[in-house]
Amino acid sequence: xxxxxxxxSARHLHLTREHVQQLFGAGYELTRKKDLSQPGQFACAExxxxxxPKGQLNASILGPERPESQVELSLSDARxxxxxxxVRESGDIAGSAACKLTGPCGEVELPFGVxxxxxxxxxxxEDAAEMGVADKQIISVRINTADRSVVFGDVVVRVxxxxxxxxxxxxxxxxxxxxxxxxxxxVIL
Length: 189
Description:
By secondary structure, the chain is an alpha/beta fold. It has four helices and 14 strands. The protein has two domains: 107 residues, no CATH class; 70 residues, Beta Barrel (Barwin-like endoglucanases). The strands form two sheets. The chain has a six-stranded mixed β-barrel with strand order 1-13-10-12-11-14. A six-stranded mixed beta barrel has the order 2-5-4-8-9-6. A hairpin with a 2-residue loop joins strand 4 and strand 5. The chain is globular and about 50 Å long.
């Protein structure tokens, strides 16, 4: 059995330097609140309001800053905002949904950048070789819970020496399986 840790990723956004300054003020530096499982990634203390045609939600910012701003929502979050968003890999934002971001010092109109992140497995090259998986391969992962065991298909494998081996799902997917916190999953090839 090929076991991996599965983590739930709640709604969040990644910001460019320019957008951080528009939302929080010139020269502003994001405040590292908590390190995440992926090396170099961290949750920030700051939050931003995301506005769509039907409403507004607050979301955490993940650092470090990125070359393009991106908002990652669950499909339920998107519906509550009145947005239709594509399911895509992180960074694949061209032609995706638009929204408005609001911070304490200003607003940013994102013409695109809102997605539901495709479920994915970050994995080191060593672990990938041991499990027999390759970058961009599509796999399935079984999660056994007391009352809602599930097999998640369409999990994209992302291999890099910069990663820690972890699978990421969103809150809708975690709720479907009755998951709270991190759990173990079994890779099915």
